[in-house]
From TrEMBL:
Keyword Transmembrane helix in record: yes
GO molecular function: ABC-type transporter activity
Keywords from the UniProt entry: Membrane, Transmembrane, Transmembrane helix
Name of the protein described by the UniProt record: Unannotated protein
Organismal lineage: unclassified sequences, metagenomes, ecological metagenomes
Pfam families: ABC2_membrane
Location(s) in or outside the cell: Membrane
Gene Ontology cellular-component annotations: ATP-binding cassette (ABC) transporter complex
PROSITE patterns in UniProt: ABC_TM2
Domain ABC transmembrane type-2: 31-256
Organism of origin: freshwater metagenome
Membrane topology: Multi-pass membrane protein
Parts of the chain that traverse the membrane: 37-58, 64-88, 108-131, 143-164, 176-193, 235-254
Length: 260
């Protein structure tokens, strides 16, 4: 190993350690905020229990609602949560103060992102368990495909959430901005119904949105068991949205509050 590599190794280990500590702090802060825990974890579960109980005798509908709620949970725990949190941290001056500390920015942001990823994984796990033991839905047909779409979905909506936080002028406006995107998207994308039964113009809009393709991928992995080769189009759309979100997230990121 070269001298440069030997010198850099401790710094990398230190950055990873700091990211892990930030992640642990974020987990503690999350569970100490009941409203955040409810919105990110309990709300999708309650919706699944509600719709699942109403349509328990309709297996076809239950097979639609399970991956739909799972996809909604991923969007809520990444896109919505990150847009809210980063706006709050920016406008409260937390990001600016962190920027002035010795902590590497990558370590701090990694802790925030890992917290969102954890919430998404918890939501998917809870949805699978409730569907299996509450409504008799089988275990996911393709675990590898499920993992791929979960990873790509989390990355895509995480990047879009960070990017969208740049468009929110202040924290007071955050709920209106986020819900103006979140609510129409979950209804158009087929969280609560099969998009094939929607009017033609809604189906065309739905095919543009990333959540539609995440739900399609999760449905194939969890319900139908279709091979991932049949979902490459959905995967490509998600990756394209993720690439756009990643570019906008990096280019527009600001550590300083706007004060307006």
């Amino acid at each position: 190993m070269s001298n440069f590599a030997q010198q850099q190794a401790p710094h990398r280990r230190s950055a990873v350690t700091l990211a892990w500590r930030q992640y642990r702090l974020e987990r503690k802060l999350f569970w100490r905020n009941p409203s955040a825990a409810f919105f990110n974890l309990m709300l999708p579960l309650l919706l699944l229990l509600l719709f699942g109980a109403v349509f328990a005798g309709n297996k076809k509908y239950v097979d639609v609602i399970v991956p739909g709620i799972a996809g909604m949970g991923v969007m809520a725990s990444t896109f919505s949560a990150l847009a809210f949190n980063l706006t709050f941290l920016r406008e409260q001056g937390v990001l600016k103060r962190v920027r002035g500390t010795p902590m590497p920015p990558a370590s701090y942001l990694s802790g925030l992102l890992a917290n969102a990823v954890t919430n998404a994984v918890i939501q998917i796990t809870v949805v699978i368990l409730v569907a299996r033991f509450g409504f008799g839905v089988g275990w996911p047909k393709n675990w590898i495909e499920l993992g791929i779409f979960l990873a790509v979905g989390v990355a895509t909506f995480g990047a879009l959430g960070v990017a969208f936080s740049h468009a929110i002028p202040n924290f007071d406006a955050a709920p209106a901005y986020v819900n103006a995107i979140f609510l129409p998207v979950i209804f158009i994308s087929g969280v609560f119904y099969d998009t094939q039964t929607a009017p033609a113009f809604l189906k065309e809009i739905a095919q543009i949105l990333p959540l539609t393709h995440l739900i399609d991928g999760l449905s194939a992995a969890m319900v139908s068991g279709k091979a991932i080769s049949t979902q490459l189009g959905s995967l490509a759309v998600l990756l394209a949205w993720g690439a756009v979100g990643g570019v906008l997230a990096v280019r527009g990121f600001s550590w300083d509050e706007r004060g307006n």
